[in-house]
Design a protein that fits this description.
Length: about 300
């Protein structure tokens, strides 16, 4: 077990995590950033394999001793404050986030934990467009309501359960202690970067002035799916005969690039879909706001 203080940024995804990792965490003076981005000067960081193994290995295949040893060697050889960021720790589609949390607690005894959260209707909308973007040429894109209905039918790891952030945050509080768990708002990052930087600096144990400039000019790392690509995916799903879809996957790169360029889709969700999402997360949001003194209602969260 590692006694040295470490800060774990465990997610959630779709809260500008990639922008934070690339443009803020990777450039902080006096902070050893051992997590994402995993590439440094063209080479993988020492903890890459250990983080992937801890995050995605099934329990029977998990090598706890080797993983703890890899983390210990990396942390003990690092200079400055240690930060490990990976939204994969909390991404419940490909792993069990509670199991990941227990594995992290078994390695780190004095860790502080940072969560970044986002209003859940916007979060699910972003997740849907991300799903569309990943498969727009290989698989058809269904309308949002169809996608959401399929998600609801999944027993585990569906988008609606993932959007209810509070249970996982509460579980980390049980493991690491309430005083060590920090919850920051994506909306404050955009609208009030000074306030967000103060809170992030406090969680990291550094001066806020170091963060303020980086956050005020924070670039967007993951570009949104274009309106043209979104319409193309819908056409592929609803109008293109299955026999012709194999040719879509073979489109030349110049045609793909043209389809992918452009402004983001203007996606309006049906009122019943919005209320469905808000109904799933309302109770959790109330509990989260109370425990962490968060004004979630001011940012449009369901309360």
């Amino acid at each position: 077990m590692i006694d040295r203080p470490v800060t774990l940024h465990v997610g959630f995804s779709k809260t500008a995590t990639t922008s934070l990792q690339n443009s803020v965490f990777a450039t902080l003076p006096g902070v050893a950033n051992l997590g994402k981005p995993f590439l440094e000067q063209g080479r993988r960081k020492p903890l890459y394999d250990a983080i992937v193994h801890l995050t995605f290995s099934e329990e029977l295949a998990y090598d706890a001793a080797a993983t703890a040893r890899a983390f210990s060697e990396a942390v003990n050889s690092a200079a400055g404050r240690v930060l490990i960021s990976s939204e994969g720790f909390s991404y419940g589609r490909h792993n069990d986030p509670a199991l990941v949390a227990r594995r992290l607690r078994a390695i780190f005894s004095n860790a502080s934990v940072i969560f970044t959260v986002r209003e859940q209707v916007g979060w699910i909308r972003s997740l849907y467009l991300d799903d569309c973007g990943r498969f727009v040429f290989e698989h058809p894109v269904s309308r949002f309501e169809t996608w959401l209905a399929l998600e609801r039918r999944k027993r585990n790891r569906n988008a609606l359960r993932m959007a209810n952030f509070e249970p996982l945050i509460a579980f980390y509080e049980q493991l690491f202690g309430r005083e060590r768990v920090h919850v920051l708002l994506y909306e404050e990052m955009l609208a009030a970067p000074g306030r967000f930087s103060d809170k992030l600096a406090g969680a990291l144990g550094i001066e806020a002035t170091i963060l303020q400039r980086s956050l005020q000019t924070l670039p967007r790392s993951n570009t949104a799916l274009s309106q043209r690509a979104y319409r193309f995916g819908l056409f592929n799903h609803y109008f293109l005969p299955p026999v012709l879809r194999r040719y879509v996957a073979r489109l030349p790169n110049f045609m793909r690039a043209r389809i992918l360029r452009g402004s983001a889709p203007k996606l309006s969700l049906a009122p019943q879909s919005v209320e469905l999402i808000r109904g799933y997360v309302r109770t959790g949001n109330r509990a989260l706001a109370a425990r962490h003194a968060l004004d979630l209602a001011a940012h449009g969260y369901a309360m």
